[in-house]
Design a protein that fits this description.
Helix content: 10-25%
Distance between the termini: 23 Å
Shape: elongated
Number of helices: 2
Largest sheet: 6 strands, mixed
Number of strands: 6
Length: 161
C-alpha cells in the first residue's frame, strides 16, 4: 500500500481546556499527511478536486501539549471515483528520553474518504492517478476498523513538519 508518516508537535492551539488534544486537531493532522503524500506522488494539484464525504475516528488515548503526534496515513482503497485513507496517530511523549525503548501509544485510528470530482459530480479516476495512488483490487482489502495494529506499508518518506 502507498503511505507516508509525518510528525507534528501537539501545540497549545491543538489542546482544549483539559490540556489534551482537541478532536479537531486530528483532521488537520490527517490532512497535513494527505498533502505530504499527494506531494510525494506528484498529485498535489488534486486539492479542490477530492472533497471529503466520510470521516470516522476512534479515540483511544490522549495526546498532551508538548507531545509529538506521529501520523501514519495509507491508501486503504481506491474505488472507481473514491479513495479511502486509513490513519493511525501515535503519541510520542514529550518527556520520553531519546533512547526510550517503550513503543509509542496509539491515540487515534480512523479513515477518511474523498471522491474525485474534477468538475461537477463524481468521475472515475484516470488510470495514471489510480496507479499512482496504489490502486488495489477491492477483494484484497480489509474493511475499515478490521486492523488491530497500524497498517503496514512502504513509507515514501518521514517528515517533521
Amino acid at each position: 500500500m502507498t503511505g507516508i508518516v509525518i510528525q507534528r508537535p501537539v501545540d497549545w492551539q491543538d489542546t482544549d481546556a483539559a490540556g489534551h488534544y482537541h478532536h479537531s486537531a486530528v483532521i488537520r493532522w490527517v490532512e497535513a499527511a494527505e498533502a505530504a503524500l499527494l506531494a510525494e506522488l506528484g498529485l498535489r494539484w488534486l486539492f479542490g478536486r477530492i472533497p471529503r464525504v466520510r470521516y470516522e475516528v476512534d479515540y483511544a488515548d490522549r495526546l498532551w501539549f508538548g507531545d509529538t503526534a506521529s501520523i501514519e496515513l495509507s491508501v486503504g482503497k481506491v474505488g472507481t471515483s473514491s479513495i479511502r485513507y486509513d490513519f493511525v496517530i501515535t503519541r510520542i511523549p514529550a518527556s520520553a528520553p531519546p533512547a526510550a525503548q517503550t513503543p509509542p501509544t496509539v491515540a487515534v485510528r480512523g479513515a477518511l474518504t474523498a471522491v474525485h470530482t474534477p468538475d461537477a459530480g463524481a468521475q472515475p479516476w484516470p488510470a495514471d492517478i489510480a496507479a499512482a495512488l496504489g490502486d488495489t483490487p477491492t477483494s484484497q482489502l480489509e474493511p475499515t476498523g478490521a486492523r488491530e495494529h497500524p497498517p503496514e506499508f512502504p513509507t515514501l518518506s518521514t517528515r517533521e513538519v
